[in-house]
Amino acid sequence: MNRKIAAAVLLAAVAGGTAVHASAQEKVLRVVPHSNLSILDPIWTTQFMARNHGYMIYDTLFGTDEKNRVQPQMVDKWTVSPDNRLWTFTLRPGLEFHDGKPVTGEDVVASIARWGKRDAMGQKLMTFVERMDAPAPNTFRIFLREACGIMLEALGKPSSNVPFIMPKRVADTPADKQIEEYIGSGPYIFKRDEFKPGDKAVYVKNPKYEPRKEAPSGTAGGKFVYVDRVEWNLALRDAQAQVNALAKGEVDVLERPAFESYEQLKKADGVVLVNKDPLGFQYMARFNHLHPPFNNPKVRQAALAAMQQEPFLRAQVGIKEYYKACPSMFTCGTPYGSAKGSDIQSKSNMKKAQELLKASGYDGTPVVILKPTDLAAIQKLPDVAAQLLRQAGFKVDLQAMDWNTVVSRRAKKEPPAQGGWNIFLTAWLAPDVWNPLTNAAIGADGEKSWFGWPKDEAIEKLRDQFARETDEAKKKALAEAIQVRAFEIGTHAPLGEYVNPLAARKNITGWVIGSGDIYWNVKKN
Amino acid sequence: MYTFILRRLLSTIPVLLVVAVLVFLMLRLTPGDPAAILAGDAASTEQIAQIRSSLGLNRSIPVQFGIWAGNLLQGEFGRSYFYKMEVTQLIAQRIEPTLALATLTIVIAVLVSVPLGVLAAWRFGGWFDRALMGFSVLGFSVPVFVLAYLLIWIMSLKLGWFPVQGYKRLADGFWPFLHHLILPAITLSVIYIALIARVTRASVLEALGEDYIRTARAKGLPEARVLMRHALANAAVPIATVIGIGIALLIGGVVVTESVYAIPGLGRLTVDAVLARDFPTVQAVILLFSFAYVVINLLVDMSYVVFDPRIRY
Q: What is the CATH number of domain B89-307?
């Protein structure tokens, strides 16, 4: 009996060894993403993980290169009528979904329609659209009621919600419901049968994907795939465990290491840090314009004056070469980034903030700041905000809670004392805030706007003009005017920019420079 | 005996009912809105309201409870708000790592702690007894994550004997499965070794003071037989109780260990679901745990019959 048991154990051990060896032939890229992947519909939600999942399996009509220029991706060529009202696009030949069916104009029309119901920039674009059709399998047309200047910017936007192209039958899913089928035409195929929520997500190379010939750049160019599989390790969330795993070679990539981990990572053998996204992220503090004290623009101005960017960046990021102050609501170094109107914050000091607060008639109403305790990327910002505001003369009530409670509470319009709020802080990827239409915090349409609900007709009029304007120089001037006004009324406080370099094993190369977390062109040597 | 088992199983119904009502209410009365979380950062208030409506969360709490309870009676635990999967499927994916970790932890804990406890009782007051008591205090005091990091540093990073993290399913091969579980199981077992060793020592010490032990020794039985056949057997009831509690706690998920070692178990699923306000998942997992606790308690009670023939139900 003992011999039989021993034989069985030995056999199992050998079988185990064999099972491991068989998959060793494949090149597997083992990635630890920055968060868990829970929602698989990148049109339904703006979560970054859903967007990243989307980039793996879907393709886009246009992309944005590392110089922030929109470039064709699935589109081969396009024409615009002389009055800028009829856009006709022709798709590249050979585009195919993972189920073998060709990508057609009808699929594109349905995908744009669904995206246009969810995405803020898409919704703006749709206000210009009269109708869309697909007169031929490889062609689609967009008819506009009037000319607009955001067509290509919208279709090529690199961040949430990205207008990913799906089969018509999937894109016909109502916009308020999630899709249940994950078929794209992108460089990887999603292995639904191997997806284990909270454990791992698996993507395999799409052997039929035809990349563009150009070199990859941002979300544009050729999406060449050099690995057979990409495995996202969704279970490894502890920061120290991530560092240990990368140092030992059990994983290949840490997408966004914690800032505290960089010292260790710099010393780890075989590990390199790669700043593949030089534009990075922007921190911001959002005021609630509905309730005191920030229903008073003068009080908002005082808060803006108090919230100097350097203390936030030093506390939260800490590594000098990874952050910089940026006196712009639109990402510095991008077409609409400028310092216009920012003096209230960038050239201010605490004395001025105190004077402004005194002059505003502030009555001592406590400022409720929401502080997330479980989101390392931003959890120090509220403490800095509280300290600076107190120094300026504000009374502050800093309330700690988990991030998802912050997310729920910031959606409430009730007064702070009844479960509402006065300030919350967050971070955005550069493309999310780099123009007046993608930047949710700039919108000032009252209660229809993003949380905080500022109301200002002047800003809305300027944003509308921006959407219509086709001349780049005029768009830039409009963006500056919008920013000036936004600082005047204090829509929010930009708190500087930072980068979060990924950490990878030395044998992982081919990183594409651009926004977002992209895994094509990556080689495992 | 069968009547006893049937009675105990029937008693799970009111227990589960109370648990169901409590967990349902607590989830809906505490702060947090799954619709806002699902919608993402740039969502508008209208989009959030739409999502809330599609999930049925705009209905009154009694109506929501009625719908959920009705589905439950038909064996439907619902779908995760986030993963769009049946909750039973989610749980099924996470059960193997949790059971595997729990089983290996308890096996290591029992195999190590019971002999240690017996030896300590046998050599009561000696250096071994004092050393074990000191170790057990340490075992209770050191946080699991500190011990985990220490073991990872020594055994994985320095010696390279074990992987730093991860879980391999049994289907991926027995040795990889075991290899990935050993370090987490050792980490977790320390506190259980400390606990079970102390209880074993106390129980065996009490048994060693009984007349039948004196009789056994007087009859000239070998000391090992006296300890194992007479002392330990009679001390087994409280030891079985503590082991049963340990199993129940382990099944409930040990989220810190799962987080440090990246084991996709039920503990992590529960915490993620709570943080995400994934109501169907939290409700189902809590009900499952409650049922598991009742069954484990029943099995422990039944084991008393094996250890102590005087106990009859």
A: 1.10.3720.10
